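Anyone up for a design puzzle?
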């Protein structure tokens, strides 16, 4: 019994060391701990895996070691973030590419019911939006607010060049320009209300209605 308790305590210490090494980006220590058989999915009290912690800090090399060792890129924490979803939302291009090439679930959603594409569009991460579109994420997915990626790029964007380019990318990828919000307000109406003339032109050319 004592031996079992001691082993469990030692295991807990090593798991904590793995999470800390991942968070700090110490790829060498991460590899050493994994070689010792430490649980690659060992979670903290917030349900965060070593990979998610590495992703939070954009620790690319540590994330690479973990992913190539088999870490689950779709493992969600208590607030429904996963390494894939977080990398997409934050525009962490290199980690995102790693998750996409290692089994990212393109249909997985965050706590708002949105795919990785929706917050990427909202935050103006042009290359991330392009990458997710090319990967095959549904451009017309509707989250719990009844907003698509297109709607969020308009309503929550700043109307600048990045968000205009994102609107263009989404439209070219087949985004439905007439999916309205829960109040029946269309993307075109939202663009006009905000004076986003460049977005308005793109939407009109794609058959948008007010």
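Challenge accepted. My sequence:
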């Amino acid at each position: 019994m004592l031996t079992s308790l001691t082993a469990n305590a030692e295991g807990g210490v090593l798991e904590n060391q793995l999470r800390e090494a991942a968070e700090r980006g110490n790829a060498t220590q991460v590899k050493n701990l994994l070689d010792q058989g430490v649980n690659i999915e060992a979670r903290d009290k917030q349900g965060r895996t070593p990979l998610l912690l590495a992703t939070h800090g954009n620790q690319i090399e540590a994330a690479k070691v973990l992913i190539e060792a088999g870490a689950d890129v779709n493992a969600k924490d208590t607030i429904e973030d996963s390494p894939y979803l977080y990398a997409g939302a934050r525009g962490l291009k290199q980690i995102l590419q790693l998750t996409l090439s290692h089994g990212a679930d393109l249909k997985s959603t965050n706590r708002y019911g949105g795919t990785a594409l929706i917050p990427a569009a909202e935050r103006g991460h042009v290359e991330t939006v392009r990458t997710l579109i090319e990967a095959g994420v549904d451009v017309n997915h509707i989250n719990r607010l009844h907003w698509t990626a297109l709607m969020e790029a308009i309503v929550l964007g700043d109307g600048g060049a990045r968000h205009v380019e994102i609107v263009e990318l989404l439209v070219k990828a087949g985004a439905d320009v007439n999916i309205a919000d829960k109040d029946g307000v269309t993307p075109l109406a939202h663009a006009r209300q905000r004076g986003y003339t460049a977005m308005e032109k793109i939407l009109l050319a794609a058959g948008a209605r007010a």
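A detail worth pointing out: The domain at 112-210 is CATH 1.25.40.20 (Serine Threonine Protein Phosphatase 5, Tetratricopeptide repeat).
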